[in-house]
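Saturday, quiet lab. Running sequence design on the structure tokens for the scaffold JK sent over.
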């Protein structure tokens, strides 16, 4: 029982202490369509990032890929309008304005950064939580001796009258032995219930901690 609660507490503590790596937040980039040019003409982003094109010229412009892993085409944008695209595939996206073919630019999409692996659990860190639940069951061991001490005292009382020098007094000790034996199951049940209750309290305490 002690070992079961100790292993359960260690498993809960290791689960709570495991580092959680948050996902990388997607970024948002902006390209200006102004003075019949894209600014910047070359933009580097990562997979999952969103690029927004904002139109500032009076003449209409659009965004049309000429060479790209995934082709896309925006509608024609009037002055003050914008359009965005989220890149899901790495590679180089070359594009131009179909209304003004001299307007050319590119977006370089890099793969998303790999999440760092969780640090390995060392033996020292794994052994540290064991000391906490190991100290708690010692209280259960402290409660157990009163339960175990009752039967030896009664047996010693029974053994002392049954001496070779007093054969005639053998009947009363038999009655005491039967009385004492009838009380042993109750004491054992009480001790077992106390040990289980303390173990449950220790488990709940370790979970809250």
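Result came back. Writing it out in full:
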């Amino acid at each position: 029982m002690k070992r079961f609660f100790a292993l359960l507490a260690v498993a809960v503590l290791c689960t709570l202490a495991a580092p959680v790596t948050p996902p990388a937040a997607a970024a948002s980039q902006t390209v200006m369509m102004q003075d019949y040019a894209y600014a910047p003409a070359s933009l580097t982003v990562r997979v999952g990032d969103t690029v927004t094109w904002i139109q500032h010229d009076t003449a209409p412009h659009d965004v049309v890929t000429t060479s790209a892993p995934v082709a896309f085409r925006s509608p024609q944008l009037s002055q003050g309008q914008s359009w965005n695209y989220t890149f899901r595939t790495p590679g180089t996206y070359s594009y131009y304005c179909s209304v003004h073919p001299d307007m050319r630019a590119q977006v370089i999409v890099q793969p998303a950064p790999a999440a760092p692996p969780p640090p390995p659990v060392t033996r020292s860190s794994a052994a540290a939580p064991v000391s906490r639940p190991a100290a708690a069951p010692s209280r259960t061991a402290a409660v157990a001796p009163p339960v175990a001490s009752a039967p030896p005292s009664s047996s010693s009382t029974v053994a002392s009258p049954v001496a070779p020098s007093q054969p005639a007094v053998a009947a009363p000790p038999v009655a005491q032995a039967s009385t004492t034996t009838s009380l042993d199951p109750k004491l054992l049940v009480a001790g077992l219930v106390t040990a289980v209750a303390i173990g449950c309290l220790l488990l709940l305490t370790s979970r809250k901690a």
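Notes for JK: The chain has four helices and eight strands. Residues 171-208 form the longest helix (38 residues). Ask whether to fix the surface positions before the next round.
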